[in-house]
């Protein structure tokens, strides 16, 4: 470990292209049917060998994170170390630095993406792996979004998020992310839902043609968006701004408040983001591409 180079992972922003709430379990967890993709943009984690465990944070949104003890990166580190120790694998101390580039509590993965990236990086740093059943249990113990963030490729997520199906036919997309920098409480949004028995997503395009996917997505929705917009009206304003800049489709991601607009090219997305920053310099805008399978 003392000779270990820096291990770097990108915690990519998670985008819910569609999110249907289809039911609720007896334990209170909501059942979802969601189409998910991931952006090139995200937080960054650097992991190095150290004389003792350390954790530090920088970046534009570092100051709005909660207490370090509550950070999912540390819970991921400790959970992974515990499971490896149970398998007789010794792990050395590490210094983890998180560069927080994504808004907090914004519906694009955030802490879940950071936790997933930490697990990937630590497995590389410690040069080991987990048995699939143990790995799946660890991922779900960290949160319902962590399994899909760990997968990190276009997918359909069902159940509470743990039932994952890869979608290799989903094309890469040019996006603009827009967030009014107002945190949204996911439990508050679920509590405000008017219906929890909505129909599932249904059939998806068999091709990677962007036009086919836009047509499909237009017939889908985010069932959390109406409740979120009632609590944060700026969500509707963000979507209207994206539409006015020529988005082929706009929608809220996750429980908000981040919205995304799909554009025909990265050049168009970049120009739109620059125009939106001039309109609202106090908001967050980011032009990015999504990952292909």
From TrEMBL:
Pfam families: GHMP_kinases_C, GHMP_kinases_N. The active site is at residues 14, 145. It catalyses: 4-CDP-2-C-methyl-D-erythritol + ATP = 4-CDP-2-C-methyl-D-erythritol 2-phosphate + ADP + H(+). Pathway: Isoprenoid biosynthesis; isopentenyl diphosphate biosynthesis via DXP pathway; isopentenyl diphosphate from 1-deoxy-D-xylulose 5-phosphate: step 3/6. ATP binds at residues 103-113. SUPFAM superfamilies: GHMP Kinase, C-terminal domain (SSF55060), Ribosomal protein S5 domain 2-like (SSF54211). Residues 214-279 form the GHMP kinase C-terminal domain. Its EC number is 2.7.1.148. Keywords: ATP-binding, Isoprene biosynthesis, Kinase, Nucleotide-binding, Transferase. Coiled coil: none annotated. The keyword Lipid metabolism does not apply. GO terms for molecular function: 4-(cytidine 5'-diphospho)-2-C-methyl-D-erythritol kinase activity. It comes from the Bacteria. Gene3D superfamilies: 3.30.230.10, GHMP kinase, C-terminal domain (3.30.70.890). Catalyzes the phosphorylation of the position 2 hydroxy group of 4-diphosphocytidyl-2C-methyl-D-erythritol. HAMAP family: IspE (MF_00061). Belongs to the GHMP kinase family. IspE subfamily. This is 4-diphosphocytidyl-2-C-methyl-D-erythritol kinase.
């Amino acid at each position: 470990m003392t000779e270990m180079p820096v291990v770097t992972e990108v915690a990519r922003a998670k985008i819910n292209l569609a999110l249907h709430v289809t039911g609720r379990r007896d334990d209170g967890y909501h059942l979802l049917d969601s189409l998910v993709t991931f952006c090139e943009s995200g937080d960054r984690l650097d992991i190095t060998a150290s004389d003792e465990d350390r954790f530090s944070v920088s970046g534009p949104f570092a100051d709005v994170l909660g207490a370090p003890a509550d950070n999912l990166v540390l819970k991921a580190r400790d959970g992974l170390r515990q499971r490896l120790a149970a398998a007789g694998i010794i792990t050395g101390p590490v210094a983890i630095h998180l560069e927080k580039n994504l808004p907090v509590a914004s519906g694009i993965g955030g802490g879940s993406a950071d936790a997933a990236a930490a697990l990937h990086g630590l497995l590389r740093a410690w040069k080991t792996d987990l048995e699939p059943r143990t790995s799946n249990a660890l991922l779900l113990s960290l949160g319902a979004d962590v399994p899909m963030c760990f997968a990190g490729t276009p997918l359909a997520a069902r159940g509470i998020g743990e039932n994952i199906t890869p979608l290799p036919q989903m094309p890469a997309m040019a996006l603009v992310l827009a967030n009014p920098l107002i945190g949204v409480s996911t439990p508050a949004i679920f509590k405000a839902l008017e219906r929890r028995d909505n129909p599932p997503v249904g059939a998806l395009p068999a091709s990677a043609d962007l036009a086919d996917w836009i047509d499909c997505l237009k017939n889908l929705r985010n069932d959390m968006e109406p409740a979120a917009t009632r609590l944060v009206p700026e969500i509707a304003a963000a979507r209207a701004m994206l539409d006015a800049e020529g988005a082929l489709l706009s929608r809220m991601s996750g429980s908000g408040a981040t919205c995304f607009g799909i554009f025909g090219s990265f050049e168009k997305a970049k120009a739109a983001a620059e125009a939106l920053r001039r309109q609202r310099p106090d908001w967050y805008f980011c032009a990015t591409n999504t990952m292909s399978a």
